[in-house]
Amino acid sequence: MCVSTRLNVLAHTMVPDHQIMNEEEVAGLLSLYNITNEQLPKMYHDDPAVKTIGAKPGDVIRIIRDSHTAGRAESYRLVVKRPKK
Amino acid sequence: MPSPKRIGKIEFGLLSPKEIRTMSVRKIIWADTYDDDGFPYPQGLMDLHLGVIDPGLRCKTCDQKASECPGHFGHIELAKPVIHVGYTRLIRKLLRSTCRSCSRLLLSPEEIEKVVGTEDELTGDVLSEKDIKKERLCPHCGEQQLKINFEKPTTFSEIIMEEGRKIEHKLTPADIRARLEKIPDEDLRHLGINPDVARPEWTVLTVLPVPPVTMRPSIILENGQRSEDDLTHKLVDIIRINQRFKENQDAGAPQLIIEDLWELLQYHVTTYLDNEVAGCPPARHRSGRPLKTLSQRLKGKDGRFRGSLSGKRVNFSARTVISPDPNLSVIEVGIPLAVANEMSIPVQVTSYNIEELRQMVLNGPSRTALDRPCGANYVIRPDKRRLRLAEGNLETVAEQLEPGWTVERQIRDWDIVLFNRQPSLHRMSIMAHRVRVMDGRTFRLNPAVCPPYNADFDGDEMNLHVPQTEEARAEAAILVAVEENILSPRFGGPIIGGIHDHVSGIFLLTNQTRWFTRSELLYLLKNIDVTSLPEPGLVQGEEQKWSNKQVFSMVLPRELNMVFKASSCQNCDTCKRQLCERDAYVRIIDGNLESGTIDKKAIGAFDGQIVHRIIRQYGMKRAAEFIDDITHLAIRSIMFDGFSFGIDDEDLSRTEYGQIDDVLKTAVLDVQRRIKIYEDGQLEPMPGRTPEETLEMQIMQVLGKARDRTGEIAGRHLGLGNSAVVMAVSGARGSMLNLTQMAGCVGQQSVRGERIMRGYDERTLPHFRKGDRGSDAHGFIQHSYKGGLNPTEFFFHAIGGREGLVDTAVRTSQSGYLQRRMINALQDLKVAYDGSVRTTGGRIIQFRYGEDGTDPMKSSFGDPVDVKGIVESILKEEV
Q: How far is B105 from chain A (nearest CA, A)?
């Protein structure tokens, strides 16, 4: 039997905050680290959190999570299409 | 240096038969190697066109001598094609995805488009076996497809359904090759194969390259016999079978014989390429040893990649057994004279040092005694010629010496060398020490540097390397020196510190209060550099006395303030502080030990609170000096009273033995009572457990408690007068559990955390009744090690002990491989100047190292700032 209520992954305590960054923020990020978006860490387009916030391949996502060392840590990921297999 | 280039693409292709024939210099047809005169047969496996290995002969292809000729390939024309084992996967994929009659892809253009994309818009994906439905009709010619069966190592067959029965029809390599040949180039591109460099039929060999003799040299044994390389042996087999095959074929032999020979040829070519294929018995040498063929040369730890290309061998290194010398400084290493005489450092001759170096040349290569100045082993002339110094030529060479020459002088005291113990698991496994030339044949090191190397002296060997350039020596002194590696980046605390006797010794010195006379004080301070004595703490008439805490304070830096609890602290509910009867409350005010005992918590490796504070306040160098002082003081202290342990130290009095017996008896009875309750079915199971599990847990608990009680009884009798207690309390070695097992009771033996259950049917040993659940039938040892185990107890003890051994063996191999994978994944990451962690390609792994940008080595046990320590040292009290 299958329960059909959709789980909102973002509401789970273990899932950190995901935000889609706008173009200006992305440009600022890339120039801050002097990189192209290919050099950013990646995440797949079918990641449950990515699907929930509605990000598309090419978007950059800001992830804010609690950190053992720093208290709060920001990380950024480029959404890419999951390759076959 | 040219700027780094990004790799656009890498092309992998197959060697075509045409290419093999063009690069070949000779067709090989004879299986024999040398004739009776020891001369290679023309067109044999050792043909002179393939290169030469014997000195004196010249290569018939390039006319060069053995040392210059790189070798040249030959080839063997195979009588019939055979499959290359390395490509069986690819062949299977191609056979399953193409038509058996027209060899086109088993997909219509629309279906292909779905995966690969249209011409203008490629998805970048390629077709795989999974995209093709099984046993369908060919969309191009309508042929019914059959299931292709693949059997390791190289057999392919089609399955035909006939009258409900399955019939396997074997495909010969020739059939397979014919099918592969027909696959159109366009279809191959959809499968991710570039037909320009890799036509699929090239995976079925028709011609075999013969590697040059230079990569399979024969060696001449002492008795003058030639011994051929494994590859040559295998090639001989191939040529022999190939020859026979051809003869049979020409003679029109029956199909059965041809098939057998074909299979044999396939076997030999398979094992020639890879002798460890699944489902194929390895080809063996006459002695029974499996042959080392092509794949085995490349694979694995000693293979071409890991063994020959990544593996480095070095000169200027030494290896010998290590032994301890507590009188050395931690930054020193003792080196045997014999080693020191062999190891050298190149020194450029200048007008400033020419006289000094000339003297070294005159001293020659053999230094006969420790107090003799060092000599030199070689001199290098400006034309790079190397002259070996020997008794005869010392004067002449010394005479010729002038600026521009280089002298390779022997190492001497205070030179810097790298010292290493395998496995090199962390950076502290290689540290730079200062040389101290010594007698004997072993490397000597201060036992305080054992923890970073994880060394002991039960026969461990260590390696030593002598840096040869100024840069290397500077790097060693600034980055690799022992003083720079006292702190471990693993946890931000000191990894070098007192061990074993250092901890016992300093504990015995500083525990409670003692008074020393002047001569006793000087005995203790003998190995420490002190210029003046403090005011005596006690004057009794004529006699001046100093307290043990005063003695310890002499090695502390002034202005040191700290308060902490020693490892002998019992964590009482309310701390009595200075009035602690165990003297575990340590207070250091302005560099004076006011109260408390110094032990593992204060100076031990891994803990060393005082060492840690000194590093933070005064730096690594002062800390190294402190460790030297503390180890020297501790060794003198432990010698002051003497420290030993004998069998009678485990003796208890009659009362204690009586009490222990009582405790064990009640426990055994209690177990029996609980078993009775269980057998009567009265046992109330614990939530989520069966009655059996509940009973087992109860028994384990009762017996565990009983053992602890015997430990308490024994502990009551054995006080700080007992060496084992001193070691356990101070944290030097062992614990009260070890003492319990020696004097009280060894306790329950277990396998996987449960009582021992294995053995005979329903019992562990034939000495017990079936179904006996009693304590003694399942590995409870009532006796102590001192008292001695009875035979069944001894057997159970061996079972429990074996589990420990197996666990360690399994763990080390697993964690070793884990470590290797980790290193391979992380080795090129670095922290960039902006604090981000990046790969060599500039890709970001972490935006800020460790998310807080803290160097763990400079942290205080993980925290970026040691707030408690700073406040304490200013307020001079506990916070």
A: 20
Q: For B847, which of A69, A76, A84 is closest by C-beta distance?
A: A76
The CATH architecture to which B647-806 belongs is Orthogonal Bundle (1.10)
Q: Are strands B837-838 and B830-831 parallel, antiparallel or unpaired?
A: antiparallel
Q: In this predicted complex, what is the ipTM?
A: 0.92
Residue partners of B42: CB distance under 8 A and separation at least 6: B48
- Cross-chain residue pair A38–B834, CB shorter than 8 Å: no
In this complex, which of A35, A70, A84 lies closest to B852 when CB atoms are compared?
Answer: A70
| Cβ of residue A76 closer than 8 Å to a chain B Cβ | yes
The answer to whether A33 contacts B834, with C-beta atoms less than 8 Å apart, is: yes
Residues of chain A with pLDDT under 70: 1-5, 84-85
Q: Which residues of A are less than 8 Å from B854 in CB distance?
A: 69
The upper half-sphere exposure of residue B512, i.e. CA atoms within 13 Å in the direction of its Cβ, equals: 6
Whether B595 and B550 have beta carbons less than 8 Å apart is answered as: no
pLDDT digits over B568-577, tens only? 888 888 888 8
CB B453 within 8 A of CB B421: yes
pLDDT for A1? 47
CA–CA gap between residue B376 and residue B361 (Å, rounded) = 5
Numbers of helices and strands, H then E, in chain B:
25, 32
pLDDT at B534 exceeding the cut of 80: yes
Please tell me if residue A70 touches chain B, with a CB cutoff of 8 Å.
Answer: yes
Give the Cβ contact number of residue B411 at 10 Å. 23
Top-level class of domain A16-80: alpha beta
What are the angstrom distances between the C-alpha of B194 and each of B46, B132, B153?
A: 36, 20, 26
* Residue-range domain boundaries for chain A: 16-80
Hey, what CATH topology would domain B317-494 get? Barwin-like endoglucanases (2.40.40)
Cα distance between residue B483 and residue B88, in whole Å: 57
The token pair at B204 is 């079925």
CB pairs under 8 A between A and B: 41
What pairs with residue B162 in β-bridges?
B165
> Containing H/E element for B420?
strand B416-420
